[in-house]
Amino acid sequence: MSKSNTPQRSPLGLLILFQLISEPMHVYRMQKLFEAEGKDRVVNVRSRASLYQTIERLVRHGLVEVAETISVEGYPDRTVYATTETGRVLAHEWLREMLASTEPDYPEFIAALSIVFALPPEEAQAELEKRAERLEAALADTEAALSALDAGLPRLFVLEEEYRKAVLEAELSWVRGVVADIREERLSWSEEWLREIAAAFLPDTPQDDAEDHR
User: Fold this and answer.
1) Is 89 left (phi over 0), alpha (psi -120 to 50) or beta?
2) Under a CB-based contact definition with an 8 Å cutoff, are residues 25 and 19 in contact?
3) Domain ranges of the chain
4) How far apart are the C-alpha atoms of 172 and 194, rounded to whole Å?
5) Element (H or E) spanning 82, and its range?
6) For residue range 96-123, what is the model confidence (pLDDT) as tens digits?
7) Nearest to 167 by CA among 47, 44, 41, 50
8) Which H or E element spans position 64?
9) Does this model's pTM top 0.90?
10) Secondary structure of the chain: what % helix, strand, coil (to 5)?
């Protein structure tokens, strides 16, 4: 498969490919298995439409194929999908890349932080306090999920929850620190101060650039 024909990798696409490698299945069974395995905490599978859309994209690129259609009287036909040999190869390639890659995914929170000074400090503090509350809830949920697991379940199958817990703890600690710094005015800003900083640190840019006249 040429690079131009290779679809962009995605977490949902990866999980679908490996689910179909384990056994051919229809979308309803796949959704239920994802939920039973806790994969709905990893990717958004609440909407079956998103599963169908991703599978259709994988079919177009020759990574998934229709294995059979099951007809049961009184029920709509169910299409059973399977991973192709090309899909198996690419699924393992995606898995290796996702494990090793540190490419930025440009989350919206980082974008918001880059212009947080557009809000008054007290308003920024209030919104970050809301984020901290939600992080606390998410952390409690993750800790509860870990506690509820069978004690005999090998660690290999809970790595994603361990990672989620570590990331939530780190972010919560950082957000709390920023909130405290704003509250104690160790971190503050004003329009006048921002203008001074812009004058001191931003480079002068010519009003008319040669690039604009091409």
Assistant:
1) alpha
2) yes
3) 7-100, 108-201
4) 27
5) strand 78-83
6) 999 999 988 888 999 999 999 999 999 9
7) 41
8) strand 64-70
9) no
10) 65, 5, 30
